[in-house]
Amino acid sequence: MALMVLAVGCLALAIAASLLFGGKPTSIADAFTGLVGGTDPYLAAVLDARIDRTLMGVLSGAALAVSGVIIQGITRNPLGDPGLLGITVGAGAAVVTVSAITGNGVAVGAGAVWVAFAGALTTVLVVFMVGARSASGSVVKLLLTGAVVSAVLTAYRQAIILTHPAVFDSFRHWVVGSLGGRDGSVALSVAPALGIGFILALMVSSSLNNLALGEEMATSLGTPVRLVRVGGIVAAALLAGAATAAVGPIAFVGLVVPHLARSVVGTDHRVQIPLALLLGATLMVAADTVGRVIARPEDIMVGIVTAWIGAPFLLVAVRRGWAAR
């Protein structure tokens, strides 16, 4: 409980920093005035934009982190992340396809969210249907299928963007991942998928503990292994697909945060998932704030900052053996 309270406190501090700091520093008094409806229209516009970014950071960070916990639990692979099932590649492939057909660049908004979300879910369904055809429905088969489908979609995506200059020019910004330019309509668009995904994640959390003991042991304990695997994959796809659709592909959050949560609370997924939710939201919001502060008056996209943070952390985790826990 103390850890959860500490995690909530860290998230609250990250949210406060996100509202106060950016291209232009804002005092606590000014921020409070703007939040309660001050008369300065510029300050109000700045705070509105920061509120939207912070909201998207909380939702997408929490979703990616919980998705990573589930995927690592289902596959029993400490290096598992949403990219294993082709979620991010599928979302990108759908976006560039629609952009090439319509002749427009990659848009950011509620419409683009649904396009990317549909692509992510379709890719996961293909991976699961093909990978689950093995007699044992093995996890290895599922992961290999995800790698093959991802490779094919990556080649397809590259072919599209190289032959459509307008698509390439805008896609290169979307593919890095950013919280900027997203308003409340984007959050509302992905909210139902995120809500269902979080509920499913909590429902399978107890069964993931049994699955960690091995499929045979889990079956002997009365765990419906296939049902748990399907439910977990659906939850991971909903969470990561919605987050990717909303803010673009964000690297390392779904890989680093599960390791951090596991190193703190152990292997109990019933505790890992809520803690990862809080830590993922904190990491995303903090990374976005750092990107805005160090590059004033411009900002560095959050996907770049999370890669800066995640790569060294992952290296330390591997060297210290955290990945094997």
Automatic annotation (TrEMBL):
Membrane topology value: Multi-pass membrane protein
An annotated GO cellular component: plasma membrane
Superkingdom: Bacteria
Transmembrane segments: 53-71, 83-101, 107-130, 142-166, 186-206, 227-253, 273-295, 302-322
The keyword Transmembrane helix is assigned to this record: yes
Pfam families, per the entry: FecCD (PF01032)
GO biological process terms held by the UniProt record: siderophore-iron import into cell
Record localization: Cell membrane
Keywords annotated in UniProt: Cell membrane, Membrane, Transmembrane, Transmembrane helix, Transport
Chief location bin: membrane
Keyword Cell membrane on entry: yes
GO molecular function: transmembrane transporter activity
PANTHER family in alphabetical order: FE(3+) DICITRATE TRANSPORT SYSTEM PERMEASE PROTEIN FECC-RELATED (PTHR30472:SF1), FERRIC ENTEROBACTIN TRANSPORT SYSTEM PERMEASE PROTEIN (PTHR30472)
Family the UniProt entry places it in: Belongs to the binding-protein-dependent transport system permease family. FecCD subfamily.
Record's protein name: Iron complex transport system permease protein
